[in-house]
Amino acid sequence: MGAVKIQNLSKAFPKEDGTSTRALEGVTLDISDEEFICLVGPSGCGKTTLLRIIAGLETLTSGSVTIDGHAVIGPDPKRGMVFQEYSLFPWRRVIDNVAFGLEMKGVGKEERRRTADHYIDMVGLSQFRDAYPFELSGGMRQRVAIARALANDPDVLLMDEPFGALDAQTRNRMQRELLSLWQQTKKTIIFVTHSVDEAVYLADRIIVLSPRPAAVQEIITIPWPRPRDRTSAEFAEVRRRVLDMINETETLR
């Protein structure tokens, strides 16, 4: 289960002069189990801060975040995180990178290898199980990072611009592969992106955040089945609508 409930969440970062910088203000959002959500908004508005609070990597100032009714008070294996930078251990092979979280939980060697192999196969990297990160392309490294997050069997998968450093062709392929993984695993996914095209292609709902301090400006439901046609008039219309919202708020800052 991976239902996320955010109520009146605010976050302020203290400054040396005794004042504070408000990053989030009154964010309220309900995310259903198995839902694919994309967070978009002006650059620097607080998308990553919100994601890190849900992950338990950052404390909130006020409000609450619960997952299946349990308050988020710190990191938990039930919330997997995938970063833009891959964050793989360069000295560990693919199989050992994917098994790392299981190793930290004390899972036996045979079981963690079996689990890691399952997810390595799921992301299409079986023939690279014994490779080191430097031997892989950027897209392959990100697949390893996704497999590592999935190996812990999280209820919620949190993804912070995971494809932002990839070239356009690889990025599109990774989007398709992620949707395939999501349809297989049915994890709740919360995905931060600066690409409105990516959000319209991936999401069940797009959450548009306002400039800092961020609040929920609008929630847009994408009604069409997958796979989606990026060249369709409907796709272009939603993309333009979201871009107009973001551009308008950036102009008003």
Features:
single chain; 253 residues; alpha/beta; six-stranded mixed β-sheet; four-stranded antiparallel β-sheet; 8 helices; 36% helix; globular
Rg: 18 Å
Mean pLDDT: 93
Across the major sheet, the strand order is 6-7-8-3-9-10
Unreliable residue runs: none
Task: Count helical runs.
Answer: 8
Which geometry do the CA atoms define? globular
Q: How far apart are the termini?
A: 39 Å
Q: Count the beta strands.
A: 10
- Quaternary structure of the protein: single chain
Notes on the structure:
- This protein is an alpha/beta fold.
- The protein has eight helices and ten strands.
- The strands form two sheets. It has a six-stranded mixed sheet, with helices on both faces. The chain has a four-stranded antiparallel sheet with strand order 2-1-4-5, covered by helices on one side.
- Strand 7, helix 6 and strand 8 form a beta-alpha-beta unit.
- Helix 4 (109-122) packs across helix 5.
- The longest helix has 20 residues, at 233-252.
- It is globular and about 50 Å long.
- The termini are far apart.
- The model has no long low-confidence stretch (mean pLDDT 93).
Present the secondary structure layout.
Layout: E1 4-14, E2 20-31, E3 36-40, H1 47-55, E4 62-67, E5 70-71, E6 79-82, H2 94-98, H3 100-104, H4 109-122, H5 138-151, E7 156-160, H6 168-185, E8 188-192, H7 196-202, E9 205-209, E10 216-221, H8 233-252
Parallel strand pairs: 3-8, 3-9, 6-7, 7-8
Antiparallel strand pairs: 1-2, 1-4, 4-5, 9-10
Helix pairs in contact: 4-5, 7-8
